[in-house]
Amino acid sequence: MAQVMRPSTTGSLFATDGKPHPLQDTLLAVTLVCGVLAFVTSMFHSLHLLSSWAGLVGILTGAYGQFISETTRERFGLIVGLGLSGVGFYLGLAHGGLFGGVI
Question: Which of 20, 44, 62, 71 is the right S-S partner for 31, CB 3.0 to 4.6 Å?
Answer without folding.
Answer: 62
